[in-house]
Specification:
Blueprint lengths: L27 H14 L2 H12 L4 E3 H4 L6 H13 L3 E6 L2 E6 L3 H9 L6
Antiparallel strand pairs: 1-3, 2-3
Helix pairs in contact: 2-4
């Protein structure tokens, strides 16, 4: 049994980095910021790791629970670092393990960015 107290997760509004793609053309700065996120997700291993964290019960995952993606543990660490650098994940060390979670507004912001403003 663990004596770790869990803090409540506060729901927050998604703060998109940019307007939906269908609203107007992106500026150069907006495109640079978005490209970093999509470049990080452009690798199949990173996409699997991101998906594992995002879909994990409680919204966070221990590295020990998500490292079975067909590459060595140092390679998993490298990919998780790239996802963190892109602003997609945050982490917290608890004892010997690191727990990862998707940044609170990332999924909603990415969805808003890709949302079609006009109905199909």
């Amino acid at each position: 049994m663990s004596n770790v107290d869990l803090l409540p997760v506060l729901e927050s509004e998604a703060v998109p980095c940019c307007p939906p793609l269908s609203e107007r053309p992106l500026t150069a700065d907006e495109a640079e910021r978005i490209a970093v996120m999509f470049k990080a997700l452009g690798d199949p291993v990173r996409l699997r790791l991101f998906s594992s964290v995002a879909s994990h019960e409680g919204g966070e995952a221990c590295v020990c629970d998500i490292s079975d993606v067909g590459v060595s543990q140092p390679t998993v660490s490298h990919h998780l670092k790239k996802l963190k650098e892109a602003g997609l994940l945050s982490s917290e060390r608890r004892g010997t393990w690191v727990y990862y979670r998707v940044e609170p507004t990332v999924l909603a912001a990415m969805g808003a960015l890709l949302a079609n403003a006009a109905p199909a």
